[in-house]
Write a structure and sequence with these properties.
Blueprint (H helix, E strand, L loop, with lengths): L4 E7 L4 E7 L4 E7 L4 H9 L3 E6 L7 H10 L2 E3 L7 H8 L7 H30 L6 H9 L4 H8 L5 H12 L4 H39 L4 H39 L5 E10 L1 H5 L7 E10 L1 H8 L4 E4 L5 H4 L4 E4 L5 E3 L3 E5 H28 L1
Parallel strand pairs: 1-4, 4-5, 6-7, 7-8, 8-9
Antiparallel strand pairs: 1-2, 2-3, 6-11, 10-11
Helix pairs in contact: 1-2, 3-4, 4-5, 5-6, 8-9
């Protein structure tokens, strides 16, 4: 049985508050408490429904919301600037929040609802017009990920032959994550692209060899000298392209092997640094990154990454400034990986153990800080 879609606003702190709205903008729940750790927050909110989006009242996403977003797989919607108290009081006045924390959480949820409302209405109107309201939840979830309504419907209604249907039933029986299916599709596309490039390079090598053979037959004076130089260049080009072809074949071999291991692997993207030019053209929402030099970054790229990424695996230790940005940093030396030039494949269980260690350390530090504050 499908869960209702919900829109959530969270105000983290010593007293944490959350607000839950339905997709029509009605308040379903509003709560604040000093005992709302991440696990309690997850249990209470997911009991209300499937989280569509998460709202915050500040432009820099707090760490608790980053972690909550990673757990539920939902996008965080942030305001362009931190919301003013007067504005939050005006938009929440009719709901009579019990305290400032509830007010801030509700303001965040209402702002998130306002951002996605046009998309929700368009989906409802389209599905009503074609008599497919029963697909509302799945279409809305995909529309939020960038699908057009038409593409989402085509994906959901794609006919299945018996073999495909049997595979899909098996996936459902074992509750295989949809992200794993998407990674598998991506790997197959990478596989096909690499195979095409290898075929092109092999053909190019054959053409170059024919050209060399033709040129080598000309033996007259200055022409021979010119052609000899060209032959030397072409030989160098052949060597370079053979090397590239071998690299691509090796990458193709690795990705092909990994296709059969995706059940226990996560796919991560490799980048040289966290500069804007590197991340803006590579990183998508929900990606895991393996970074050569995390300390090469810009404020612009960090703000962009906070919308997209929660886990960063580093080769060189991050500076203290980065550790305060809310990302989960994991040492690559602790994570066995199979790598190609652009991708890394990580054991899910090992990454989860590292995540738990980090969460436990964060909890210990937070509890120690709270204990010091209470003593003071």
């Amino acid at each position: 049985m499908q869960q209702d879609l919900i829109i959530v606003g969270i105000d983290p702190g010593i007293t944490t508050a959350y607000a839950v709205l339905d997709v029509d903008g009605h308040v379903r729940k509003l709560k604040s408490s000093k005992e709302l750790a991440l696990n309690n927050l997850l249990a209470e909110i997911t009991n209300e429904g499937k989280v569509l989006v998460i709202g915050t009242d500040v432009k820099h996403i707090p760490g608790l919301i980053e972690k909550f977003s990673a757990k539920v797989g939902a996008k965080v919607i942030v305001p362009e600037e931190d919301m003013k108290v007067g504005f939050k009081e005006r938009i929440t006045e009719m709901y009579n929040p019990r305290d400032d924390h509830q007010r801030d959480a509700l303001a965040a949820a209402l702002h998130a609802f306002k951002e996605v409302q046009p998309m929700l209405q368009k989906v409802d109107e389209t599905l009503k017009r074609i008599g497919k309201e029963h697909l509302s939840i799945e279409v809305k979830l995909r529309a939020l990920k960038g699908y057009t309504i038409g593409n989402a419907l085509a994906f959901l209604e794609e006919p299945e032959d018996e073999a495909v249907s049997k595979k899909r039933r098996l996936k459902t029986a074992f509750k295989k994550p949809s992200r794993l299916v998407e990674e598998n599709k991506h790997l197959r596309k990478v596989n096909a692209t690499l195979a095409n490039k290898v075929a092109y390079l092999d053909g190019r090598i054959r053409d170059l060899l024919k050209k060399i053979q033709s040129l080598s037959e000309k033996k007259a004076g200055d022409i021979i000298k010119f052609k000899d130089k060209k032959i030397e260049f072409l030989n160098q080009e052949i060597t370079r392209q053979r090397k590239e072809s071998m690299q691509i074949k090796q990458e193709l071999k690795t990705t092909t092997a990994v296709l059969f291991e995706t059940r226990n692997k996560l796919m991560a993207k490799k980048v040289k640094n966290l500069g804007w030019e590197e991340v803006s053209k590579t990183v998508k929402e929900g990606d895991i990154l393996v970074v050569e030099d995390v300390n090469s970054f810009s404020d612009r790229s960090l703000q962009f990454l906070k919308q997209k990424v929660s886990i960063i695996i580093y080769r060189k230790p991050p500076a203290k400034e980065l550790l305060k940005q809310g990302f989960l940093f994991v040492n690559a030396a602790h994570i066995p990986m199979r790598e190609t030039e652009t991708l890394a494949f990580i054991d899910k269980e090992v990454l989860e153990r590292e995540r738990k260690k980090k969460d436990m350390l964060s909890t210990i530090v937070r509890e120690y800080q709270e204990e010091r504050q209470s003593v003071i």
